Amino acid sequence: MRSDFDYIVVGAGSAGCVMANRLSADPSVSVLLIESGPADKSYFIRMPRGIGKLLEPGNAHVWDYQAAAREGARSEMWMKGRTLGGSSSVNGMVYMRGFPQDYDAWQAAGCEGWGWENIHRQYLALENHVLGASASRGQGGPLGVTVQPKDNELVAAILAAGEAIGSPTVEDINNLETTWKGGLGYQTRNIWQGQRCSAADVFLKPVRSRKNLHVAVESTVSSIDFDGRRVVGVNVVSKKGATRYSANKEVILCAGAIETPKLLQLSGVGDAELLQSLGIPVVHNAPGVGKNLREHCYFAMQYRVRRGSLNSAFQGAGLLRSVVQYIASKTGPMSHAAHEAGGVVKTQPDLDLPDAQIGISLHSLVGDGQRVRLEKEPGLTMGGYFLRPESQGEIRITSADYRQKPYICANYLSSEVDRDHAVSLVKWVRDCVAQAPLRPFIVDEVKPGYHYASDDDILAAFHEMGQTAYHVAGTCRMGSDDSSVVDPKCRVRGVEGLRVVDTSIMPTLVSGNTNAPMMAMAMRAAEIMTEA
């Protein structure tokens, strides 16, 4: 393979696949897409519930990290995708787009061109929605979006219980009206004909035959190469050894909200004091790199149920039957997303917007923050998180060696606002479960348990049992101010020829899952680059 390219895209995840697709559409330029992990050939990637095999520490398709929930709190395992498609190849396929107000707030804060008008246009172009085109939805786009089949009486009872406390049942939980009124419904998923639709499926595979697009897998970028403040290439380590690739125009970092700030710091772009302490020459003093980490603190409330659980379908003889059904017809439990139902709700009736996302999963797990397994008895999970956390953590390297994993602190619930909404979330779920439609199903609350009764008890449970939602963002914040890491054109401040396009540039977290927003944002970033 040649050693020089016009554009080098680092990371073949949700953003990287989009950028490789859009940039290589111009046959006059050459594009190199570099992915640290292997190709996405595993059958467990295609099969939606194959995530049980993929999300294991040590699996070649994931990065695994130890993250501190808060300073002095227990650590937990964080995993991110490390294959073509990135996390879109290993995630729960929950398709949520965030609220229009999220993007409009970014624009109002100085991120010109990133308001809902521009992002919504990307969603309409992206989606091939099974419910058809509307003012909210797109149809005819490359990404298949379907809705969980309405085939479980326990889910129907939960939706009825939600209605009883003011959360209406809706056909499309991404409907624009739902983003300000709230609502629960059967889960929208990026699943089509029973198979996962990853960013690699949608954006990369259709263009792999382009002669000007080159893809390198199992190749890790160890550092970015600068000539003064100008990026001129990247240094890569693979099974073949060390290689340097030159970038004639630009390098675009799409490595994710953990690996991108790590790579910037390793390359001399970061807090000068930190870099100097590790013996790394400072290219540009950028204290914001790795700061402003935002993450949803997910809290799984679990219930023992009499019927409706799929625990037995995912283990033992039941698992065998489910796999056979899936192979034969691409249907059944193995074709489900991580949640069978969900939506956004107002945990307090006087709120202007929904403040919590609820995910309803017909299974229950036991674990210690590191590894998990299914419960033997029938269980239900009603998990959720506060949608717009204000708590901020950080990521920072601890060594100049690229092989060393960074220090990560989520700093969950350090904000009073986050704590207030965490408590009201638990109370909302308990109120829902207590409604008449669910009484024939619910036996008891297993996690956290009703002995966590007071507000202080609930917060203690969050600290003990809360965990990552795999939505880490914000660590290379976009903005118009000098302290932001990237400007509204995704260019890294203080250097030339370098952009960032991944969840690290989000100024704040979107109200929901991050996979769909990242694809839409990357589509918008590609527009901005071609407009420039």
TrEMBL record:
CC cofactor: FAD
Origin superkingdom: Bacteria
Keywords from the named record: FAD, Flavoprotein
Keyword Flavoprotein found: yes
Pfam families: GMC_oxred_C (PF05199), GMC_oxred_N (PF00732)
InterPro entries: FAD/NAD-bd_sf, GMC_OxRdtase, GMC_OxRdtase_N, GMC_OxRtase_C
Keyword Endoplasmic reticulum attributed: no
Domain Glucose-methanol-choline oxidoreductase N-terminal: 81-104, 256-270
Family from the record: Belongs to the GMC oxidoreductase family.
Name used for this protein in its record: Oxidoreductase
Organism: Spongiibacter thalassae
Organism phylogeny: Bacteria, Pseudomonadati, Pseudomonadota, Gammaproteobacteria, Cellvibrionales
